[in-house]
Amino acid sequence: MNRKKFIKTASLAAFSISVFGFVSSKDNKFIGDCETTNDILGPFYRPDAPTRYDLTKTGLRGSVIELKGTVYKSDCTSPLRNALVEIWHCNADGDYDNESSDFQQRAKCMTNEQGTYGFKTILPGKYLNGGLYRPAHIHFRISEANSKELISQIYFEGDPHIEKDPWASKKEAELRILPITLADTKGNLTVTFDAYLGDR
After folding, report:
1. Mean per-residue pLDDT for 114-143?
2. Which residues are designated catalytic?
């Protein structure tokens, strides 16, 4: 292998490891380092949100998105069924529903046999944290009997408030800054967040 080809190959390998996680084989078992990074729980978590897919309602302001993904085991490839996925976020005005029985912009579900989950919701607004606006974000809490609990947040590509945010600007959050995708010819928006849980 010549020097130019070696540098190119090595660079691609480093990119693959840093962005997608590294998987190796030991005793015929896969071992990975793809575990999803944590983020702050924040002050607005509420237990006992309803189990539901659709968080929208008539008159709700904001761009509707389908938020979906797969939850994986620590080997980076095996989907986790029956993992509890909880989400919560503010509305388009930057307000959280901290008291009502409607649990607006809050929901939970269990992953299916393929480890997948999905919610229909809106892109959150923003609110001031001290003198800075927090970037738009959605909170996640994912738990499963044999895995470490994940408490994290996702952010969105192109958000100008990420750069100065104490949490979203961390290197650990890079893989949680996600694109908003036009999923079809009708303008429907999709955000995909795959989560990788570590072993207990």
Report:
1. 97
2. 96, 127, 134, 137, 139
**What radius of gyration do the chain's Cα atoms show?**
18
Same domain, 43 and 18: no
**Residue that has been written with the tokens 């895995």 in this structure:** 147
Q: Stretch 101-111: mean pLDDT, rounded?
A: 98
**What region does 105 belong to: left with phi over 0, alpha with psi -120 to 50, or beta?**
left
Is there a single domain that holds both residue 109 and residue 140?
yes
Q: How many domains would you assign to the chain? A: 2
Q: What is the pLDDT of residue 25?
A: 44
Sign of the dihedral through C-alpha 59, 61, 66, 72: negative
Asked if 67 and 108 sit in the same domain, the reply is: yes
176 touches 37 (CB < 8 A): yes
Name the residue range of residue 15's domain: 1-33
Residue 185 binned pLDDT confidence (cut-offs 50, 70, 90): confident
Residues 5 and 94 in one domain: no
